[in-house]
């Protein structure tokens, strides 16, 4: 059985077709350990009550305890020497940083609060919590690390190709596109308005294959097809694309920020068993949060029950905007809002209006 939804003008192939049998169903979201009422947000701060509270010291002691109880469920459920509080803490000295997991958790809390405060251009007001990615696992199920090219030499090195892999839809495409496009600032676009390469637009077949591999990953991660973001009349044209393409553009930069500023900086903290074959830490991609759904957790926000993770809003640079179709460079500043999200938003809105008129 198929579900069909028209998302734009008729005749523009702007539609979503979903195989109901393979559609990812929303899993249960764990309830909060106990209600957090307004009175619990008052009183002594956590950095006064406890020692060595470096990140959540702005919370009240009760807020702090509430979040710690929730994190037990989200990341290390159960009892025992390696579960619950003991997963990060030495029970004999809770203030100690002797366990690497505590250092990692501290950095991940910073990352989560940064996303909720400074990346509303992608997560909107729904936001994220530790559960969004972990879902009860110490290490999120969907992650990536740099690939190993195998043995040196022409015969032994596949250069990341010709090995069917689920991240690229089991196609023989380069599987190392995450390292190129989900960290750093490398340009992803390959389409040009010129028939031949020019000084300001030189893209190889390998670049094209890597970009296509990334698009396959996006499609699978969100459980959507290409026209969820693109107009098939011109995949490159921003003024014909849906507003969701803007959101994805910001999302890619949000993932880069998470990998570059928060995960890679922990390289020397992670033990060998928490690193990939090339010695780099396991990083995030689109599937880490989305897990087959266009909106993680079906669009349900957990922040009302866990406002501690909204984070203090820090200084944000001028909002970046998606490039127009002919741009040859991109800005990579953190966007503050979608208010300057570029031409696609207005055009998509006009397209939805036109679609509704056509159906009257």
Detail the topology: elements first, then pairings.
Blueprint lengths: L1 E5 L8 E5 L26 H4 L11 H15 L24 H19 L1 H4 L6 H5 L42 H5 L23 H18 L20 H21 L22 H5 L52 H17 L1
Antiparallel strand pairs: 1-2
Helix pairs in contact: 3-8, 8-10
Please provide a written account of the structure.
The chain is an all-alpha fold and 360 residues long. The protein has a single domain, classed as Photosynthetic Reaction Center, subunit C, domain 2. 31% of the residues lie in helices and 3% in strands. The chain is built from 10 helices and 2 strands. The protein has helices at residues 46-49, 61-75, 100-118, 120-123, 130-134, 177-181, 205-222, 243-263, 286-290, 343-359, and strands at residues 2-6, 15-19. It has a two-stranded antiparallel sheet with strand order 1-2. The relative contact order is 0.16. This is Photosynthetic reaction center cytochrome c subunit. One of its GO terms (biological process) is photosynthesis, light reaction. GO terms for molecular function: electron transfer activity; heme binding; iron ion binding. Heme 4 binds at residues 122, 286, 289-290. Heme 3 binds at residues 215, 226, 229-230.
